[in-house]
Amino acid sequence: MTRVAVIQMVSQSDVAANLASARALLAQAAAGGARLAVLPENFAAMGRRDQALLAAAEARGEGPLLPWLRAAARDLGLWIVAGTLPLLPPGQQGGKPCASSLLVDDEGRIAARYDKLHLFDAEVADSRGHYRESDDFAHGERIVVADTPVGRLGLTVCYDLRFAELYVALRAAGAELISAPSAFTAATGAAHWEVLVRARAIETQCYLLAANQGGLHPGPRETYGHSLIVDPWGLPLACRASGEAVLLADLDRSQQAAIRQRMPVDAHRRLRSGTLQPLSKEYA
């Protein structure tokens, strides 16, 4: 078995304080035997509206985020899924950043980058009411799966959880576990968070590592917490309702293989990308 960690935070607008908190939580994960840890969405800069300025500083090599991330992974000997960071699209020097989830190996090298595909533009029945991520971020353009010491990892972020086709595509690309760093609102989280995370695990027969923000943030904004590690049968292995936390669980690859063998849903799949055709008019 191999051990993984999901980290729940209550990040604020102070980048230095957030990074210090994240480093302490990552150290707990490493001390607990985790080989890979997942930080939540916006772990370093929750509630800030100057995402483009932060991204530009990182592109110039003047920002604190990437050096901190590389050093944390190297010093702790830990693979890290760095929630999301504001990073400019590859090859661009300005404009809107992407909400980028980086996978960094235990030597501090960037092993993969996933730019969030689905941006949260929605009306929510909470104190803030209106969310438009597309005002501050650019959409990603591709799915990402990468090899890690704990298995083949698919990367997703938060609102992606509502789009089952992304997770099916990750499974088809060989994913064995999927990260979902998030900042689900308290209102939408109470309604849908756990059922979405568990459903994505069940339909892909993957471990889901769902690291959520869990508390009050600038904005004002309240996030739901209830970070989860879910097994390929859809059973929660660890959960924390609110506040900072480090969740640990062991991945049982033999159990996962047995589930996939007994119920080979991927082999039974009839509808794949590009195969669904509309009904002809006489049957519509």
Automatic annotation (TrEMBL):
Residues 2-253 form the CN hydrolase domain. Keywords: Hydrolase. One of its GO terms (molecular function) is hydrolase activity, acting on carbon-nitrogen (but not peptide) bonds, in linear amides. InterPro entries: C-N_Hydrolase (IPR003010), C-N_Hydrolase_sf (IPR036526), Nit1/2_C-N_Hydrolase (IPR045254). It comes from the Bacteria. This is Predicted amidohydrolase. SUPFAM superfamilies: Carbon-nitrogen hydrolase. It comes from Geopseudomonas guangdongensis. It holds the Pfam family CN_hydrolase.
